Amino acid sequence: MATAMEQPSKPFWKTKPLEALSPEEWESLCDGCGRCCLVKLEEEETGDTYFTDVACFMLECHSCQCSDYEHRKRHVPDCVTLTPELVRTIDWLPPTCAYRLVADGEDLYWWHPLVSGDPNTVHQANVSVRGKVKADDKQVGEGEWEEHVVRWPARVPKAARRR
């Protein structure tokens, strides 16, 4: 029988490497910010990545969820499916991304739904793309994406910083 003095077990993201997560644990790491669904541009000479305020047409910008997540590859064949290996090698995951944080041995932010218990705190902390997307990639032509480069997706908002 557990006593009142026993500490609760640590959450899975503090005890398991990404490779050991169950599919449910893996999916729950996504905070629902939608930043990874923004169009990103890579500068060929430097390899630098730039975010835009243009989202994938599949992103529902208020909920910050994919409109058909399970079948997204049918609609967007080049949609990236994150894996532990990719998380460790791609440089465009935002600094607030739980996959990136866990891979780097960091803890999740206070607003992450797994910590707060509330899926709305990602929006309250101003981390999500809600209200920030100007258009989707069907509305803005590829030749116009450079006009939509923004810096905020690569930053941690003040309201989201660790408490």
Automatic annotation (TrEMBL):
The organism's place on the tree of life at top rank: Bacteria
InterPro entries per UniProt: Puta_zinc/iron-chelating_dom, UCP006173
Pfam families, per the entry: CxxCxxCC
Protein family per UniProt: Belongs to the UPF0260 family.
UniProt-recorded name of the protein: UPF0260 protein ABXS05_11815
